User: Fold this.
Amino acid sequence: MMQTTRILLKLQRVSKGLPEAWRWSLIVLVVDRIILSLWAGVIWKLGLVPCELCIKYYWGIQPIINGWKGALLGVWQRWDTIYYMRIAQSGYNAIDLSAFFPFYPILGRFLSLITKNESLVSLLVISNIAFLLSMVLLYQHIEETFSSEIAKRTLIFLSIFPTSFFFLTPYPHSLSLLLVISAYLSARQSKWALTFIFGFFAGLTHSTVLPLVLALGYETYKHWQQSNSKGRWVILITPFGPALGTFLFFAWRLSAGFPPLTILLEESWGRVVQAPWLTLIDIIRMSKSHTLIFTTWLNLLLLIIVIFVTFWEVKYLNSSLNIYMFSSVIYLLFFTTVDVPLASLGRYILLMFPLFIGLALWAHTKHRRMISYSFGMASQLFLLGLFVMWAWVG
Assistant:
């Protein structure tokens, strides 16, 4: 504890000369990283990780289970991390790997070749840097739109949301968030080339970025209406960057001989696409038969929070952010699994960055902040513990 306090005091002294957005983002990142790493290390030290039972999940990747590396690095070798490590090390040399988007593991492979580090370290570095940059951009935008106080609260909510530890794991969520925010802010500033580029690479990172097309489309159309330049038609293609990135990945998969993604996801993970109301009907049916598991109850609670904030913040956010929130909720409800409705929803909603702005606006009293901060941090540590013990993946 004393060592942690000294680190935080030193960080505060070093960061004093930095702009407020960078200073606050660094503090949030470091505090978050320390807390989550210590908690994961404690679980590892207590011997609660059943490594011998989960060796099959490593798919040939060398497990890091001993010494300080096991406590600091090995605890993050979980679930999808293994797939991204396999792609970063050997490319798409198996059918199951073709379900995972390429941009994140490609960056991991590139960084590992430059630094001579293993892919796990490289993926962790990318995730943490991307999360830091996401917070800086978000802080700057919110400070300009609302205030520095709202910006600070937004970053806190971004870091303590029940599933936010995925931002600091070898998962693509931080990179996706950075690209989504960058594309949106570029559109707001009428930087259309950057809007398209950021959107395109977001589409190569994860399919959950696709609702961004509608938000960018609104910003683009609004500018197009106000512009009288001859080349104004060109900017109308910029919102389709995310869709193009995703489409090219799908096209490459088929050209490489991989099965259609919908078939692969259903056969390997039980993931299906169906009307949102059918998913809700499944939840009701399974709750009546007492077959609804903890994961679904948790994701249902998170969904209720998201829907509440989405409607509540309409009067505070601009039209494009409201479009992004509503379209994201509808889009995510189309995807479920056969046995576990709303599976992975807790992770996927992390890209809905206006959610955290809404939470910051809602928590304008000390009482609301105390309740939400306590719930967020306690539930995040609980879920992280399950994640480290191979018991939960969102």
